[in-house]
Amino acid sequence: GTAPDLAGRHVVVSAGGTREPLDPVRFLGNRSSGKQGYALARTAAARGARVTLVSANTGLPDPAGVDVVRAGTAVQLREAVLKAAADADAVVMAAAVADFRPAAYATGKIKKKDGQDPDPIVLVRNPDILAEVSADRARPGQVIVGFAAETDDVLANGRAKLARKGCDLLVVNEVGERKTFGSEENEAVVLGSDGTETPVPYGPKEALADTVWDLVVGRLA
Ligand code: C5P
Q1: Is residue 184 lining ligand 1, measured as CB closer than 6 Å?
Q2: Which residue range is the domain that position 152 belongs to?
Q3: CA 54 to chain centroid
Q4: CB 154 within 8 A of CB 197
Q5: Max CA-CA distance within the chain?
Q6: Which atom of ligand 1 is nearest to the CA of 170?
Q7: Is the pLDDT of residue 180 over 60?
Q8: Catalytic annotation on 157?
Q9: What percent of the chain has pLDDT over 70?
Q10: Nearest ligand 1 atom to alpha carbon 149
Q11: What number does the ligand 1 atom closest to the CA of 127 have?
């Protein structure tokens, strides 16, 4: 829809994928393109919202009329999201945030040594930003949306994740070798904390984005 039903609202969208550095030249990353988050930012702006897009490592052009804040790691993304969420009506966490980061950062490039096995990479947990913003709402009635990529038992795992994270809506994608990542299309089910289930047929990421905003607008009323 192009109705200005988000006019006067501030929405925060995270997009892309975090990169967790191992040394100055290497990182642990993921395959998120950022396209779904950018589609959410564009459609929210088209519906009249003030949009803060927290963008992690996407390489996509800044959408017009959107405030873009860059974040590299999960810790940086958390800082940027919490800051922007302070006066937000809705927060949509479309970014693929690394669950773990290397426990240590080597300030010099890690080198291979002749005849020696490599050191194991030790990981520590990253903060769960979605769970945190859901638990500590910056304002009453703030609507929080998460994303989940599942490979099997999509709905059951989605329901469990929605409850665990404490968000209002969870967009569940089935991912596979050739699905979702980097593509222009998406297919999903949006689960609501009230038990609702909104299937979104295979189609452009804008269509899924508009369905998400329809559901958000319904909850903001
Ligand atoms: O637990 P999982 O990574 O599957 O959850 C995905 C959802 O949680 C996404 O909305 C993602 O942005 C968010 N997330 C987060 N902080 C993390 C991991 C995921 O906010 N450390």
Answers
A1: no
A2: 10-100+120-220
A3: 9
A4: no
A5: 65
A6: 10
A7: no
A8: no
A9: 96
A10: 4
A11: 21
Ligand 1 pocket, 38 CB below 6 A? Answer: no
Q: According to DSSP H, which parts of the chain are helical?
A: 35-46, 74-85, 129-135, 154-165, 205-220
Tell whether 112 is covered by a domain: no
Residue 109 belongs to some domain of the structure: no
| Per-residue pLDDT tens digits for 60-75 | 999 999 999 999 999 9
Residue 72 near residue 95 (C-beta atoms within 8 A): no
- Residue identified by tokens 């192009």 is 2
Residues 117-138 pLDDT 10s: 999 999 999 999 999 999 999 9
Residue 66: give its domain's CATH number: 3.40.50.10300
Which of 137, 200, 140, 203 shows the shortest CA–CA distance to 170? 200
Q: 87: pLDDT confidence band, cut at 50, 70 and 90? A: very high
128 labelled as ligand-binding? yes
Domain count, the chain: 1
Q: Indicate the burial class of 31 (C-beta count within 10 angstroms; 0-12, 13-18, 19 or more).
A: exposed
Q: Ligand 1 pocket, 97 CB below 6 A?
A: yes
Residue 28 inside a domain? The answer is yes
* Residue 115 forms part of a structural domain: no
Structure-block tokens of residue 9: 């609202």
Written as six digits, the tokens of 181 are 């990542």
109 assigned binding-site residue: yes
Which tokens belong to 55?
């963008």
The answer to whether 160 and 106 have CB atoms below 8 angstroms apart is no
